[in-house]
Amino acid sequence: MKFCILCIGSHGDIRPYVALGVGLKAEAHEVWIASHKKACSLCEKYNLNFKLVDGDLTELINSENTQKELKGNILSKILKIMCAFKKILKIQLPMSLDAAAGADVLIYSPAAFAGPHIAEYLRIPSFLMHLQPEIRTKFHPSHLFPNQKSLKGINFLLGHFLSEQLFWQPIRRYVNKWRKEILGIKKMHFLGPKYDPLSKNTHTLVAFSHHLIPRPIDWGPHIHMTNFCLLNESENWSPPQELEKFLRSQETIVYLGFGSLTEACHIDTVREIIDVLAKKNFGAIVQANLPGLKDIALPPTIFPLIYAPHDWLFPRVKAVIHHGGVGTTAAGLYAGKPTLIMPFVWDQFNWGKMVEDLGVGPKYLSINKFNKEKFSYNLEKLVSDPLYQHNALKIMNKLNTEDNGIKKNVNRIFEILATLCILTLHLSLIAINDF
User: Fold this and answer.
1) Which of 47, 41, 38 is nearest to 7 (CA)?
2) Where are the alpha helices (DSSP H) in 124-189?
3) Which CATH class is domain 241-400?
4) What CATH fold (topology level) applies to the domain 2-230+404-434?
5) Strands 30-35 and 126-130
């Protein structure tokens, strides 16, 4: 079979889809990744075909103008970003359509807005693959409205509905025009794909562990909770001698990095972070491309890291501090490390709340409201509180007893496809008998 995996997002967002592609290819299927140019080298590394889809939302979020907009309230933030995203859609939609041509099955990420429309147009089976628990339920909040205290069930459902509409309504007219004029199919439901008869029950893979967030009982049978899809990046990778030497130089070392959102971190914040780290009696490995880091005279206790696979590095440090991307969060928990989340946007706040609820780290610190004293206090607590280490090891043991996430997702995909084939055959036989 031919699988197109259409994934839009940050470098960390794309990696689980590449991991799924590796798993599908291992079953002797033809697979290609349709994504931004940043995914090209990753696809080459794992010998996957690649098709370019321009229109990178991460670049939009990291831009200076967008960062200024992020200072407002949550509604104004999203509306302004989504209005700007309409410009990106004009590039993304046609390139996504071209990239999916010839596929037998389409797998797409939530930010790949073309996904359900292309699947309907091509009349092929499709799967929506979520990396976060951003699916309507009354048991946990939308990551855009995480702080609803009263009437939780009702407010959580309302928050999910508002999240869906904030992403759909600004682009609804443009998408429906594209559906009519280019795809030749009828308009989507006014409230979007999750309410449309043809797409509302799309099979959805929820690629994270139930040990972190239990499956809500109000999710339908078309929602399949699987497990994290993580690449084995440490295989055939050798660390630079300087890094190995630094890791041997001190008993306690923490890691700090913000992934592909690093550029959105203000230079003044970076200076304050380094100032705090420099005054601690332990070492730190920090992401080398932090804004302004090259202009700071670093003490020998701080090592600027260009690259190391998380699955190699994290088991070798005491604790991890990062932005709360799903892949980085999973890597830290699989390594059994106390974690401090410093979120920038979206779901990162929910992962920060989850880390606190699991007892593997202190309350998250928003990077946009950075406080030097709070950071110093939480950092000290992160490395000294034995309860965080104890709980992190408990979570690690639970995660490592689960089935491999790649294999679990691949198996579920083929179970569903087999069911769809049987259903199609059954309907065909009924039609023949009626004739």
Assistant:
1) 38
2) 152-178
3) alpha beta
4) Rossmann fold (3.40.50)
5) unpaired
